[in-house]
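REQUEST FORM: STRUCTURE PREDICTION
Request ID: SP-0412
Submitted by: Lab K.M.
Chain count: 1
Length (residues): 439
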Amino acid sequence: MADFAQLDDTPEPVSGSPAKHSAQTAVSMGKVLIDRLTPDTGILLAFGLVLFVISLGVNLFLEENLARLGWSLLLSNSDIHAPTGLALTLLIGALATNRLRRPRRCRKPPASDEMNRAIEILATQPNASAGLVRLGDKKILFSDCGDAFIMYAQQGRSWVALFDPVGPREAWSGLTLKFMEEARKAGCRAVFYQVSPDFLPLTVDAGLKPYKLGEQAVVDLTKFDLKGGTRIRLRRAVNRAVRDGLEFSMIEAEDVPAVLDELLSVSRTWLIAQNATEKGFSLGTFQPRYVAAGPVAVIRVEGRIIAFANVLSTGSAGDACIDLMRHLPNAHQGMMVLLFVRIMEHMKAAGFRTLNLGMAPLAGLSTHNKAPLWNHVGDRIYQNGERFYNFRGVRLFKDKFDPEWQPRYLVVSGRGMPVISMFDITMLIGGGLKGILRR
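STATUS: Completed
RESULT:
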């Protein structure tokens, strides 16, 4: 297993930083004491340490080192023989301090002038999924020259940036360093979520560390059609859906308001059937203004909408992205296949070159002997976590359309498993603990 220094996102110690040296010293002293503890006294000591850290105001580095100690005791097979209860108490305590003493969050949406500037930049860059900035649930940090931005949200002590910086690549480096510095000034860690391989060299130069999150499915529309033997199953599913009366149409943005009530009804029914709440951050949510900002693809039966998806696109007609997808339960087995195929055909005819089908989380992680611990843990979840999320099913469904699978990464500062960062991201996407527990 990994050694002590590889188990969380604790920043590297910096010479001359008393807080960091104190945190490191406290961890070292804790390791020495642990061998002498019984299970009962160990858990009592852990509770005492958690309360002590809270009473200090929970310095970011103390919080992270508390998680580091808990993870090392829980996962390491070194010479530290600690009770499992002690390790779990320290780990849960670190998350508790992250919740109880987090910096105050600004929940106000971006100002209208900031949003207008961001939307102008969207039209000049190739990443359609960056249209998620329109949700208004993320803050916007612009480059000094104003031609690029990072969209991000704060959860706990994490500033989580979504995707690569948006705008010309020559602005990425300065904007990335600016984001990291602003996060540091706020007493928070900088986190980059779902970034591409193109962004990784900049993160390495900035001293950050990448972890593979999974793979994103991108269809080359210039090559997509339903002809040939390799498409026979897809072709049969589409033909069967059409024979059964399913009809596709693309509703342009100006006509979407007329069907918003019907779309909302489908959305609410889907959420109830899934026992789910609206998510957010990296996922579209049903907000009337957001849904009506672009075209919406729908499937109808006898004139009634049974499934829909909104489509994000770039101004250059290069890339498009399927975002919010909702459907009535048990309406027709082939409705989503028909929806995806017809969207691809429509966007291809409109001159678009690629269609982003979204992520397959934890897919494609290498698990050879030299692979990091993160990969082994992620692959175990991918193979055995179906009760929590349909990991393999998502990958298999998107594979039907023969996409190119492109890796996507989480990038954070520090050394090893980014436990607290991932917890904060999960809270952001899930809409808090209540949303996570529901689904």
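NOTES: The chain is about 40% helix and 20% strand.
Reviewed by: T.R.
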